[in-house]
Amino acid sequence: MASPWGVRSEELNFSSPLQFAKWLVEPFPLTQQANFEVEEFRKYGISLCYVLWSCLIEDLNSVYTNHLDANSGHPSLSDLQEPLLGDFVVYVDAACKDLRSAAGIITTNSNSALVEAFSVALQAKSPLEAEAWALLHAVHRCVRLGRHNVNFVLDCQSLVYGIKQRKTPDWKMAAVFELLLDGLDRIPLASVSWIPRSRNEIAHRLAKWSFNSSLFGFFTAEELAPLVAF
Prior knowledge:
By secondary structure, the protein is α/β, with parallel strands linked by helices.
């Protein structure tokens, strides 16, 4: 099938991606045709490549996540879902839309009593990056207060697995991931655990409420009562 510019895919033959990219910028011999809208063609071609690349990355991330099981040699969900032990258990979640995000962070003690709860406004390019920034805020809070034996829990499986392997799950968030590893290394007996969303509802509701209301900061148990129960 011919394109609006008269380009037939079966007639295209490139030896490398670089050759194809150069052709998109200067599509010879199409540029020799009368009334050929070269700028419009370039915009279309580059936009199409961007969409295809984004779909490829999304599919790869999906495959990466779906293969975190025992059959692939990676940790299963039961392996990642560790008992919530520690002097402090910090629940972390993020709510996001477009480039705007909010972190919900709730700290409990070993008796599951509320220690503190706060939310932070974030800017992130993806939900995964938002989760990483949310966890980083929680980690830095514990570093400042000198807390140790802290168990950070979240429902983002790929981020938890990446931390355990000390390998970023997405190269686009490598910078925040390195800060995250550095912060965790500064907390004695720090651990990161995966839990299902149903067990992380308290942090999820706080993040969502702060995102929708644009209210951020520290909150008391009384202020959070309509949202969560401890």
